[in-house]
Structures are given as structure tokens and as C-alpha cells.
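worker-3 :: picked Nitrogen regulatory protein P-II
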Amino acid sequence: MKFIIALIKPFKLEPVREALQDAGVEGMTVSEVRGFGRQKGQPVFYRGAEYNTTFVPKIKIEVAVSDDLAPRVIEIITEVAKTGSIGDGKIFVLDLESALRIRTGDTDHDAL
Ligand SMILES: Nc1ncnc2c1ncn2[C@@H]1O[C@H](COP(=O)(O)OP(=O)(O)OP(=O)(O)O)[C@@H](O)[C@H]1O
Ligand SMILES: [Mg+2]
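worker-3 :: C-alpha cells ->
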């Protein structure tokens, strides 16, 4: 199993959610977060100039999926969240050791 963390532009949440559900994702966690990348939160990149770092609002999506589904999930987020402008976001992929559905006791793949 993989645990996929994606930081995306807020207006991309709904299309990403819809596309992931269409692909068979059964659950996800979403948070409103703030962050910065290489441009330190500036709306454009000025080479050589000094600017203060600011935090930009982003959406964090966390989704636990089977190894089989993970490549498709990464592909969908990449395609749907992309605008081609700076700040489109990032995807981090972690190995997921275990999962458990509290109500039923289902574990691992049965719990996703
Ligand atoms: N190294 C990092 N570690 C943790 N979070 C990060 C990291 N880089 C970016 N993020 C998160 O991803 C968000 C979007 O980053 P962003 O897309 O601006 O990355 P970038 O490397 O600057 O790429 P780009 O040049 O396309 O803007 C940030 O606001 C932050 O929340
Ligand atoms: Mg950036």
C-alpha cells in the first residue's frame, strides 16, 4: 500500500476529488494548509532579487491506496492539478505499513 500526499491549488480540489473517485479511490482526507516552494510564496519568480518568504494557501490531499492503484492516482493528480504555472504543487509518496478499519477490524487492503 502507498500513502499519497498531494499539495495542490485550492481550486483544483473538486476536479481532483471527482477524478480520483471515478478511478476507484474510496476515501481521502483533505486539509487547508499553507506552504511555500522554490519561489518562497511569491506570485512570480524574480531571479536574483531578495523577497520575504510568505505562506500560500494550498490544499493537502492524503489518500491511502493499494500498490496497484497508486500509479493511476499519481497520474490523475498530476494531470488534473496542472496549470503549468508556478505553485501547481507536489506529490509525495510513502510506503504504507498497515491500515485498519476501526468499526470492523478489517486490515490492510480490506481497510482501504
Ligand atoms: N520540499 C517541500 N517539502 C514540503 N512541502 C513542500 C515542499 N515543496 C513544496 N511544498 C509544498 O507544496 C506547495 C506547492 O509547492 P510548489 O508547487 O510551489 O513547488 P515548487 O518546487 O516551487 O514548484 P514550482 O516551481 O512549480 O512552483 C507549497 O506551498 C508547499 O506547501
Ligand atoms: Mg513554487
